[in-house]
Recover the amino acids of this structure.
């Protein structure tokens, strides 16, 4: 259902050509156009402070050449998690004010997930608290015209492995939030961690995550002023509650998380608030997992997953799904995230807390929507008119069935079955074995959004062609009620706690809120820009509704709790 147009392809090609011409005709440093913002210089750079435990935290002129990565500042080691490796340079065109020794820079036109790390060896005192931070973290994009622009699709992050390990994918690494804001660069509070040492060593990771696709421009990251210092005075609180780290620990046991069960309210006023956060380029599918209390957002270009903490609405981490296909639908179940990659026909599995890659399995052609429940994962293969069922424990593809319909799109799950919208014919009801339980053509060609309320036993289907929303009997497929909208409905979600239906109107960048019983409109809310490829992602967790805004590179958060 991806609506990529010829216009977008032509624009991408022109930007790529312009950037190549600029690179061939300019001096070695001219592609690294200054992106400096006006900021006041710090009184003293902590990188130059004698108490700083990092080696070459100022990224001075001492360098070495790595055959794969390029020019690296002495004392640091490059790493790359994603499929594409950026090129590194130590440059002097951008650095922190008051620290004029240069910075570590890297760039690439493709999505990347990379950075540098350093192990601080035999200098920490166990149980003592230290602050680890990056004082300067600049990101910018050059669309090929010799000018940098600030964009909110390049994340920066700092991580610390208190065991001294050097694998950025390890569960022992504690990460800060991913900071996507392209305006700020200096002394960003989010890029700081306060931790108690476990041993005498620790490894610091400085990470840049570009989520923008090829053709948008040359994507750039600068790091400067890396600091690790003993806190003086020492905090009185326990180490896990010191400073900011209490918000960012991803390794807590799943069993310790409270699971909120839905309750139907007899009277529940709607008093929404709507906010948005940056999650990376071209956000696509959204999945919510009560077991981990996490919301997962798929990023189309980078084939990555951004984890969001619903308690704080903060992006915690972005992890690559170990596939080069475009990230599409996403499902989450019991601490595992299942990401469909469109062009490669795969589903990748990552840990819902740490982002660690677990498995990759082949499904059908052009996998689109994903749904997960009761130990099973259903994947709608739009291009091959099939639905694959994946065992959520063994990751085995147990079956790929061919429902009596065409173009499977989105998935809504019940405890023992899945309802798959068929854009070419209606809706299919499939068992966990993949067996066809029902072929409902009552909603017809154009059926797309689908949602199921187990509490009221109602199935909701939206039709983009007829602009209708219908309530179906989930056993027979009989339409019991319907309403026609002014705009085409895209993805649907139902909050069983309030019995409110949320409908993405991608063509007008809105969410239509409807009563789940009568389908009467309750509110019409503005969200972020959907663009040509939006309208697919919406999920509900703990009184909040999450909507992916594909063109805005954001996620909208709508409160939906009972008000007096």
């Amino acid at each position: 259902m991806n609506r990529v147009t010829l216009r977008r392809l032509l624009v991408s090609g022109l930007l790529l050509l312009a950037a190549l011409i600029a690179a061939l005709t300019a001096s070695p440093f001219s592609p690294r156009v200054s992106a400096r913002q006006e900021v006041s210089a710090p009184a003293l750079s902590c990188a130059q402070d004698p108490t700083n435990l990092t080696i070459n935290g100022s990224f001075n002129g001492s360098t070495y050449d790595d055959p794969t990565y390029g020019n690296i500042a002495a004392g640091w080691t490059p790493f790359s998690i994603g499929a594409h490796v950026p090129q590194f340079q130590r440059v002097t065109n951008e650095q922190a004010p008051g620290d004029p020794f240069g910075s570590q820079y890297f760039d690439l036109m493709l999505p990347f997930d990379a950075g540098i790390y350093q192990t601080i060896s035999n200098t920490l005192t166990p149980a003592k608290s230290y602050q680890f931070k990056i004082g300067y973290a600049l990101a910018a994009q050059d669309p090929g015209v010799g000018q940098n622009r600030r964009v909110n699709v390049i994340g920066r992050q700092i991580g610390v492995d208190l065991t001294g390990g050097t694998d950025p994918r390890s569960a022992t690494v504690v990460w800060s939030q991913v900071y996507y804001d392209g305006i700020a660069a200096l002394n960003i509070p989010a890029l700081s961690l306060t931790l108690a040492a476990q041993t005498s060593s620790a490894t610091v990771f400085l990470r840049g995550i570009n989520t923008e696709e090829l053709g948008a421009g040359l994507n750039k990251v600068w790091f400067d002023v890396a600091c690790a210092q003993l806190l003086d005075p020492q905090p009185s609180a326990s180490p896990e509650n010191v400073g900011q780290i209490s918000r960012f620990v991803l390794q807590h046991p799943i069993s310790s998380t409270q699971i909120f069960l839905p309750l139907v309210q007899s009277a529940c006023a709607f008093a929404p608030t709507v906010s948005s956060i940056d999650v990376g380029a071209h956000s696509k599918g959204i999945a919510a997992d009560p077991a981990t209390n996490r919301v997962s957002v798929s990023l189309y270009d980078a084939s990555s997953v951004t984890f969001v903490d619903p308690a704080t609405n903060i992006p915690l981490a972005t992890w690559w799904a170990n596939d080069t296909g475009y990230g599409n639908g996403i499902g989450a179940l019991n601490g595992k995230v299942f990401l469909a990659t469109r062009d490669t026909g795969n589903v990748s599995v990552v840990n819902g807390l740490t982002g660690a890659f677990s498995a990759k399995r082949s499904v059908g052609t052009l996998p689109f929507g994903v749904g997960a429940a009761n130990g099973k994962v259903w994947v709608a293969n739009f291009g091959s008119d099939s639905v694959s069922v994946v065992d959520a424990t063994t990751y085995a593809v147990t079956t790929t069935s061919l429902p009596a319909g065409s173009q499977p799109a989105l998935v809504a799950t019940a405890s023992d079955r899945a309802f798959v919208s068929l854009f070419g014919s209606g809706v299919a009801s499939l068992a966990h074995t993949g067996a066809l339980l029902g072929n409902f053509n009552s909603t017809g060609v154009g059926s797309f959004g689908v949602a199921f309320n187990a509490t009221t036993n109602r199935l909701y289907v939206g039709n983009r062609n007829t602009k209708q929303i219908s309530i179906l009997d989930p056993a027979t497929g009989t339409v019991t009620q319907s309403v026609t909208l002014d705009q085409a409905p895209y993805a649907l979600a139902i909050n069983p706690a309030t019995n409110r239906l949320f409908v993405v109107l991608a063509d007008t960048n809105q969410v239509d809120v409807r009563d789940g019983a009568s389908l009467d409109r309750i509110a019409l809310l503005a969200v972020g820009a959907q663009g040509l490829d939006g309208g697919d992602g919406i999920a509900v967790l703990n009184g909040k509704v999450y909507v992916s805004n594909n063109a805005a590179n954001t996620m909208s958060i709508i409160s939906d709790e009972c008000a007096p």
In short: The longest helix spans residues 6-25. Residues 337 and 350 are 5 Å apart (CA to CA).
